[in-house]
Known about the structure:
Largest sheet: 6 strands, antiparallel
Number of domains: 4
Number of helices: 13
Helix content: 25-40%
Radius of gyration: 35 Å
Structural class: alpha+beta
Number of strands: 16
Shape: elongated
Strand content: 25-35%
Amino acid sequence: xxxIALQARIxxxxxxxxxxxxxxxxxxxxxxxxxxxRVALVDEAVLMEVAGSLRLFGGLTRxxxxxxxxxxxxxxxxxxxxxxxxxxxxxSLIALGRLRQLRxxxxxxxxxxxxxxxxTLTAARAHLDVLERVGCRTWDDLLRLPRxxxxxxxxxxxxxALDRARGHAPDGYDWLVLPESFDExxxxxxxxxxxxxLMAGTLRLLVQLQAWLLGCQSGLCALRLVWYLDPRRxxxxxxxxxxxxxxxxxxxxxxxxxxxxxxxxxRLPAPVHSLSLQSLEIEKLVDSAAATGNLLMQACQQGDxxxxxxxxxxxxxxxxxxxxxxxxxxxxxxQMQRWSSAVHxxxxxxxxxVCIRSxxxxxxxxxxxxALYPSWLxxxxxxxxxxxxxxxxxxxxxxxxxxxxLEATGWLMxxxxxxxxxxxxxxxxxxxxxxxxxxLLWIYRERLPVAASQAVDGQPHAWYLHGFFA
Length: 470
């Protein structure tokens, strides 16, 4: 078997950090779960049994490099000054002993296992003074002593630890298992009277949430932030904020900015003493490492993506103030797209023409006539004069294509309270005409005849200009 011992040493000298030693160890264990399911938190380190993952990651060296890179990236994203230390070994206690020896000598990992000092073995720490007096300073010195005498003087656990270190006895660790959903509560150091002051505690919870997402190999789609108000006030006991993202996210810096925008608009009716963060929706990612470290896209990306910009503007200005064209299930060209809230539409950043094409192809079920749709539609169709049996627009027109028949009757237009239809049915024949002054025009003719009193130049059908081609 192959084991890796890993530790993140957090520096508290420069400034207060968002994570303590216990939370840092658990966060590192969550990151390690992305490489192997056999992860254990032992003393100050994270132990990983990676024999079953070597082929997937291309060997022990590549796995170790990728593990350190991803763990370092996690702490760097959350502005936590951490120094990564790692050691390898054939057994878990050998890897752990080499990790502890790294603090003393840079090349300790290359020494013989028998030369590791006694204080690198957890089971021997309670007996270091006695072992020092009898001349046992390394693992090899202890192994030379009679087993029966060692068991009577120091107890059986020390011999069991040596057997596990040499691979003569199996390891019995409680493997780290993540909960199905994230739900953590944090008690604030001081009462918060203003909503923006809740961001300090929220950031600490977001660090733990990101580590949990890395371990689950999932992206966050929605979360709930709950704050607990002073129970001595005559107010509701809690307040909450729900944040949703258009795309699954593992890097939660954008989510933190969204929460800050929403908290800036909140007013607290009473002081807050605690916070809790809950994951509402997550989505499994095929390759979580690729989701957080895309070598092709993120290296070229400058600033926030379009989706992140839309979500931030919607949080600051309100969802109704940031809108985008969205396709609508309607056969009438003027109703095929409508303005809607951009933050609620995942396709908000797609080009409008793409959205229209996909809806038209699905609505009309006629891909062959797709080229007949113009680039620009008029806000309202313009009624045209006629000459003979043809429409006229800035002179004579030449018919190039058509008719393309469209029929949308009463099932799309419900009656109002008075029983009168709000809009007439659309029963049209569309044509493409060429104009010497206006190039290509999109013109339709009403298929239903008009009344004799409304007919133009005696023509029984009305003609309308509806759009222009590029």
